[in-house]
Specification:
Blueprint: E1 2-9, E2 13-20, E3 26-29, H1 35-44, E4 48-52, H2 58-61, H3 64-71, E5 74-78, E6 90-92, E7 97-100, E8 103-109, E9 118-122, E10 127-129, E11 134-135, E12 138-139, H4 147-158, E13 165-166, H5 173-183, H6 188-202, E14 210-211, H7 212-218, H8 227-233, H9 240-252
Helix pairs in contact: 4-9, 5-6
Bound molecules: zinc ion.
Zinc ion binds near residues 55, 57, 113 and 132.
């Protein structure tokens, strides 16, 4: 099994320490800053052996150089970002398998937020690290890709087991929740989830991780085929990709 430690860093990022209990190998996913990660690993008595990256943005990679220098960790990132991520020792692409310690993860290619973006699914442990492709009640902004591309990417998550635990990379949930209510105002699961999110944030607690089941029921970016959402957007006969595009556009202007 894997132990997961969530580390808040920068203004609203989460990065993750993963310990493979069989071998003691420890991976850090998307360290946007080195110090909080090295401090937490030291506190836990965990030796970082691997750095795993989802995409090239500074708030996911800026800690890599120092962590690698201090620990000698092996750095793995997206094949398509080789030209713009430094310190990579290995690269993986969609369809590949990532290994650290005795653990393996399936790699999904999920372009849209960036063109090189990948995600990691540890099937046996039932955990997903989507980086900035999927958020609790949201999805990543489309800095480099198209809405059609992002919708293709997100559909890969729809076939995963619904009990999968989703460790996304930002605490954006409250703002996402306010937006989701404008798209899907009569969804009872959403209304209940938003109440829970407001309570957690008022107590300064994280809303991440969530489960795919919660996201399937309440995240408008995974629900463009929902009849009530289509009704709300007056897009009853549009394609899923068209509805997704409209939801993304409205979020950009929210
Ligand atoms: Zn990003």
């Amino acid at each position: 099994m894997i132990n997961v430690k969530q580390i808040p860093l920068l203004s609203d990022n989460y990065c993750y320490l993963l310990r493979d209990n069989e071998t003691g190998a420890v991976a850090v996913i998307d360290p946007g800053d080195a110090k909080p990660v090295l401090n937490e690993a030291k506190r836990l008595g965990w030796q970082i052996t691997d750095v795993i990256l989802t995409h090239h943005h500074y708030d996911h990679v800026d800690g890599v150089a120092e962590i690698k220098a201090q620990t000698g960790a092996t750095v793995t990132g997206p094949t398509k970002d080789t030209h713009r991520i430094e310190h990579l020792d290995k690269t993986v692409d969609g369809g590949d398998t990532l290994t650290f310690g005795s653990q393996t993860a399936k790699v999904f290619y999920v372009p849209g937020h960036t063109l090189g973006h990948i995600a990691y699914w540890f099937e046996k442990s039932g955990i997903l690290f989507p980086g900035d492709s999927l958020f609790a009640l949201g999805c990543g902004r489309l800095f480099e890709g198209t809405p059609e591309m992002m919708w293709q990417s997100l559909q890969q998550y729809l076939s995963l087991p619904k009990q999968t635990v989703v460790y996304c990379a930002h605490e954006y949930t409250l703002a996402n929740a306010e937006f989701a209510l404008t798209i899907d105002p009569t969804n009872k699961d959403l209304i209940q989830r938003v109440a829970e999110i407001r309570k957690l944030r008022s107590e300064g607690k994280p809303t991440v991780p969530s489960t795919l089941d919660e996201e399937f029921k309440t995240n408008p970016f995974l629900r463009p085929n929902d009849p009530q959402i289509r009704e709300q957007l007056k897009m009853v006969s549009a394609t899923d990709a068209e509805v997704f595009k409209e939801i993304r556009l409205r979020k950009d202007n929210f």
